[in-house]
Amino acid sequence: MEKSKGLIRLSGLIMLSILLFTATPFISWADTDEILDDPIEGLGATTEVFSKPGLTGDWGGRRTSLAERGVEFSIDFTNTVQSVISGGFDETTRYLGSSELIMDVDGEKLGLWPGCFFRFAAEGRFGRNVLGKAGTFLPVNNDAVFPADPDHENDDVFALTEVTVTQFLTTWFGIYGGLMNTASGDANDFAGFARSNEHFQNLSLLISPVSTRIVPNVTLGAGIVLIPSEKVVGTLTFMNTEESAGSNPFNTDEGTTMVTEWTVNHDVLNLPAKHVLTFALGFDNDFFKLGSDPRLEFPPGGGIPSVKFSSKDESWASWYNGQLTFWTHPDNEERNAGFFLRFGYADDETNPIEWNIAGGVGGVGLFDNRPCDRYGIGIFHTEPSDEWPLPLLGIQEETGFEMFYNVQIMPAIALTFDLQYIDTGLGDGLLVTETPDDAWVGGLRLRIVL
Predict the structure, then answer these.
(1) Which secondary structure element, helix H or strand E, spans residue 6, and what is its range?
(2) Nearest alpha-carbon partner for 188 in 199, 203, 201
(3) 76, 142, 296, 331: most buried, per Cβ within 10 A?
(4) Within a 13 Å sphere around the CA of 319, how many CA atoms are in the beta-carbon half?
């Protein structure tokens, strides 16, 4: 633990020293600013909502005035009604609400110094979810697990989830640090990312689940970003392994995780393609405590035994996501369609999931009279570790598919129709005396940008 604290403090001191003493002459930051529009590990994502008028309008011109000064706000409110239509542990319907508040600041526009960006974010949720009722190992609703506060897994919660500063010293090199939210990472244009409310809902399609053991949702950390060319972006981040969502981040510092993520854009047969490859190494942590992460779901009523995988204090995982755009509308580049693929592999001695794979097709503007609607169809498979105690507990492989259609009712309002089928990953064992039936889960999600 002392080693973990030292690494995080050292990273912070290095970043602070460079901020205070570097006198590098700056040039135009227009191209640099654009990379913050894509979620990458360690850097907060500027989501697409800033390009859409909010339901509350321009606030009498104040919103535009603030944006011109480098301050942009995103406030959204999401309502989800989800039902276990058949199968699982219990056929039931639940309502869940969530909200996210984000403020992005461009330091140069605000009159500070060039190349500086700040982000502040908070998230909350209320209501109940069907996760435990569906009888699945991975959550059927990503909105139900963020913020990933272990003490409020199915309770109302509101938490500060990001306070970060990013400083570019040149147009190709920058540093960042603070309270980071990793749910913005590993993004895919057609599948989404962990915190997205415009794509799939099953977490198996939004991320590679092998990452959840050593990469927390909210934590303190620092790192660097490299942009060797306009088609390549890389990050290297050191962060605390212990989850800090809903807790004092200075008191949750058990272990250290190193994450490096690289994004490459190129053409395949004149078709746009993007690859994101990530590797994470965790050390100085007690691997692995079962039931300590709300991003992995267990039967209703808890009852998770206090057991560990092993006494190893190191763990690793690697994951990939790729996409290929096979169609773009000739008159509207925002309308497109493409394939996506995710694959992850991890140390099965310390990770409850050994490997995962997911793929499918998605896009925007399938119909000419609905140019802004988003849609997707995906399948996934998750293979748990066969190390003790998972076989004893009855945790098995999980396979499923999901399809959704997101109707853009207004620029600030979207309604998503969602249907999932899951061959559940919980079977006969200490946790479950009887294997639940395969689950059909349907949902309606209304997202409002304020």
Answers:
(1) helix 2-21
(2) 199
(3) 142
(4) 34
69 phi/psi in degrees, rounded to 5: -95, 5
Single-letter code of the amino acid located at 416: T
Over the chain (450 residues), the average pLDDT of each successive run of 10 is 46 42 39 49 42 74 91 94 94 96 95 94 94 88 90 86 96 96 93 95 96 92 95 96 89 91 95 97 73 60 50 87 97 96 93 94 96 97 82 83 96 96 80 82 96
Measured on CA atoms in the order 330, 331, 334, 336, is the torsion positive or negative?
Answer: negative
Query: How far is residue 90 from each of residues 83, 139, 420, measured CA to CA in Å?
Result: 10, 15, 16
Distances (CA, A) of 271 to 265, 274, 327, 339, 381: 11, 10, 8, 11, 27
Q: Nearest Cα to 435, choosing from 450, 444, 425?
A: 425
Let me know: does 242 contact 252? Beta carbons within 8 Å: yes
Provide the residue range defining the domain that includes 336.
2-449
Identify whether the C-beta of residue 254 lies closer than 8 Å to the C-beta of residue 227.
no
* Antiparallel, parallel or unpaired: β 256-268 and 232-240: antiparallel
Structure tokens at 244: 């800090």
The CATH number of residue 184's host domain is 2.40.160.180
**Element spanning 15, H or E:** helix 2-21
8 Å CB contact between 234 and 262:
yes
Q: What is the DSSP letter of 289?
A: B
Structural contact between residues 78 and 197, judged by C-beta atoms closer than 8 angstroms: yes
Whether the Cβ atoms of residue 380 and residue 357 lie closer than 8 Å to each other: yes
Cα gap 40→35, rounded to integer Å = 9
Query: Residue 109: beta bridge partners?
Result: none
Looking up tokens 């309770």 gives 155
Check residue 32 and give left, alpha or beta (phi > 0: left; psi -120 to 50: alpha).
alpha
Domains identified in the chain, total number: 1
Using CA atoms, how far apart are residues 342 and 186, in angstroms rounded to an integer? 10
Assigned token pair, 365? 């503007």
CB 106, CB 33: distance < 8 Å:
yes
- The greatest distance separating any two alpha carbons of the chain, rounded to the nearest whole angstrom, comes to 67
